Amino acid sequence: MKIEEYLRTLPDDMLSGTDAELSRRSLRDMFRLAGLGAGDTVYHLGCGRSAEGIRIALTEFGARRAVGVDSDASKIRDARAMLEGGVQVGDAAQGAGMRDRYRFECADIRDADMSDATVILFWFANDSDLIDAMAERFGSLGDGTRILTVWGPLPGCLPDAVDFPYVMCKTPLRPAKDVGEQLRAVFKRDCVDFVTAWEHAERYTKALGPPGTANDRFLTIIQTLTIWANAWRLGIACGEEIPEPISTYVKLMKMNFDIDFDHLLTREQQRDP
């Protein structure tokens, strides 16, 4: 089956990130990338059941205020209870002392009022319609608002800072002339070779996967082939031939798992992001 067909066999929540919780390490790395500090108001869009992003922003980075938004009322109740009751995120006294500096909102993020945001954490990996809608909203925010994403920048935008797999765009958003320019900015290379693709795929897997995950290497191979194939199709892969490691992994994925990447190994220049 084609890689796209394989991905469709996975649970929707695994692809979209709907029920995925960012680790404390990931949250800290993203907040460092944004330069989060005193005076900032943080919005965690799709905060889920965990209040860790809110707690870390307030207690470790000294943010002025933090807001968690999620459309699932049960998740909002759990997140609020964790922070107010000190469950898993610190003692109850700490939760009570922060009470006037945070809030949780049960709402569709497309409708949430973010006019006071200075930092926004936004991770919806596989919902292109939602990403496009929110990118348009972000473009209307005040200058200097930092939007943190995972894996890639906002559609059609150049990143202002990258610590892969974390990416930051700042308003006013800077348009990219094409997807190739975006990829070069993310990978900080004029062209993408096998080593670059592997290193970035491994960073993504280690950053977002639980420690010691048994299928880390399998996921890294899939991500590597996807990164390199995208670069190849856009004409920004290094060299004029398909590297031997790429060919080898493509064959292994087909023989051992019936996952086909062959159709991605054609070049087609894309001009519009």
The residue-averaged pLDDT reads 84
What is the C-level CATH assignment of the largest domain? Alpha Beta
CATH superfamily of the largest domain: Vaccinia Virus protein VP39
Low-confidence stretches: 11-18, 87-93, 269-273
| Strand order in the sheet with the most strands | 3-2-1-4-5-8-7
Mind telling me which CATH architecture of the largest domain this is? 3-Layer(aba) Sandwich
N-to-C CA distance: 27 Å
| Strand coverage percent | 5-15%
The biggest beta sheet, please? 7 strands, mixed
Structural category: alpha/beta
Give a short synopsis of this structure.
With 273 residues, the chain is α/β, with parallel strands linked by helices. The protein contains eleven helices and nine strands.
Description:
The chain is of the alpha/beta class. The chain has two domains: 14-175, Vaccinia Virus protein VP39 (Rossmann fold); 184-264, no CATH class. It has helices spanning 3-8, 12-16, 24-34, 52-59, 73-85, 92-97, 128-138, 179-187, 194-208, 216-234, 244-257; strands at 41-45, 65-70, 102-106, 119-122, 146-150, 157-158, 161-163, 166-170, 174-175. The strands form two sheets. It has a seven-stranded mixed β-sheet with strand order 3-2-1-4-5-8-7, sandwiched between helices. The longest helix has 19 residues, at 216-234. The radius of gyration is 20 Å and the shape is globular. The protein starts with a helix and ends in a 16-residue tail after the last helix.
